Amino acid sequence: MPLALYDTWSRTLRPFTPLRPDHVGLYCCGPTVYDHAHIGNLRTYVFEDVLRRALALNGYTVRHVVNITDVGHLVSDADDGEDKMEKGSRRTGESAWAIAERYTAAFQRDWRALNLLEPTLWCRATDHIAEQIDFIADLERNGYTYRTADGIYFDTAKQDDYGYLARLAVTGLQAGKRVAVGDKQRATDFALWKFSAPGSTRQMEWASPWGVGFPGWHIECSAMSAKYLGPWFDIHCGGEDHIAVHHSNEIAQTQARHGTRLANFWLHGHFLMLDAGKMAKSGGDFVRLQTLIDRGVDPLAYRYLCLSAHYRSSLRFNMEALDAAQAALDRLRRAYRQWPEGGAPDAGAVARFNAEVDQDLNLPRALAVLWEVVRSDLPTSTRRATVDCFDSVLGLRLADWREDVATIPASITLLAMQRDEARAAKEWSEADRLREQLRAEGWQVEDSANGQVLRPLD
Ligand code: AMP
Ligand code: ZN
Predict the structure, then answer these.
(1) What is the pLDDT of residues 293-332, one digit of tens each?
(2) Residue 29 alpha carbon, nearest atom of ligand 1
(3) Phi-psi region of 196 (alpha: psi -120 to 50; beta: other; left: phi over 0)
(4) 187-219 tens-digit pLDDT
(5) Residue 59 to residues 22, 181, 350, 396: CA-CA distances in angstroms?
(6) What is the rounded CA–CA span in Å between residue 54 and residue 346?
(7) Substitution candidate for ligand 1 out of 29, 241, 250 with most atoms within 8 A of CB
(8) Do 153 and 191 form a contact (C-beta atoms < 8 A)?
(9) Measured CA distances, 156 to 29, 190, 251, 324, 412 (Å)
């Protein structure tokens, strides 16, 4: 059975075939770096990491591109309100650029803590302003834009199938009636370029053929994915919230410029929910990975929790579910540790596991195969070799686990992470102060190519 993936565009499970033999282009919408990522965001990246590992399992070489939204994402997705970065700057008193740096570093630290494979390429919106301006200029030349007092907008009325990805009934959304649309002609139209407010200077603004300002949020992903993967590539991913607006708009822009719907497959991860509702950055009520680490939770236990639910069903988060995931991971690690090396994988078990992965990444069922192997009477060295195969998809780093790693107190890990953040923000005296504090607590921190290493002082 070949790999089959659920494609939001066709609303079907489709056998996956790459557009170019053996190679897969994968674009994943990345974080808006005005605040920390919450564990809901991270659930989406865990799903995308599993997808990437499943593609590798099927023998494909994956070119994986992830963007960093460091400008242009407005507080409201409807093109009004403040830019999230500039708002973050007002909140903290730091410059918008410093905030972007700091939260990018924090995000990439969460990324590594969850053992997500490093993307082939990270790309920042602010490093690709010229590409975005070129894109908008082509849209203008092709007759898809109009100008208002506050920016250049995409005219969604020019496309009969606008919003097909979300099956939007566009007629119900037209401007002029009950929907507040400002200067836009209709509610679905969206900003390509926003002007800086007259008489004021933004921290992040650029000259353009239309006036000084900044790009709208959607254009960065169309411009950067086309640049690095071409305007027709294999798979585009994101969370389910992106279907109706962000991805519909990426497709509209790309249709208008290149005549493609950008990606052959569109995959969407469902939300992590709190008992009170969905977890959202703007709500202020969100859980960070670091919050869990401070409570003594291993980040890989959160990864395990994500694997235990199918990516296309919502996952309700609470501490009981997380504790259960941690207990399962601990049980797995303790069993694995006792198994000797040198065996060969059990081909039947590997085939059953891979078949579940290939069926639209059915990780809950793949985990069931894992536990059958753990509890089986296969020779222990066979179990180890088999579980090693599974771990290339699960990413739980079973072979690397050492019990003593978990004995660094959470308060020490926190200090070390704060030092890392201070260094990323080039706040050297704060970094030195934290190093001294760690020393006073009996820990030495060393900087290596792979990040910081903590050792107890002799
Ligand atoms: P943002 O940083 O808000 O641009 O979002 C980064 C990624 O997280 C996007 O792919 C979103 O779709 C996804 N996302 C946002 N909220 C959640 C949530 N509660 N659960 C899962 N994914 C989410
Ligand atoms: Zn995007």
Answers:
(1) 988 899 999 999 999 999 999 999 999 999 999 999 999 9
(2) 10
(3) beta
(4) 999 999 999 988 888 899 999 999 999 999 999
(5) 7, 48, 15, 21
(6) 19
(7) 241
(8) yes
(9) 22, 8, 11, 47, 52
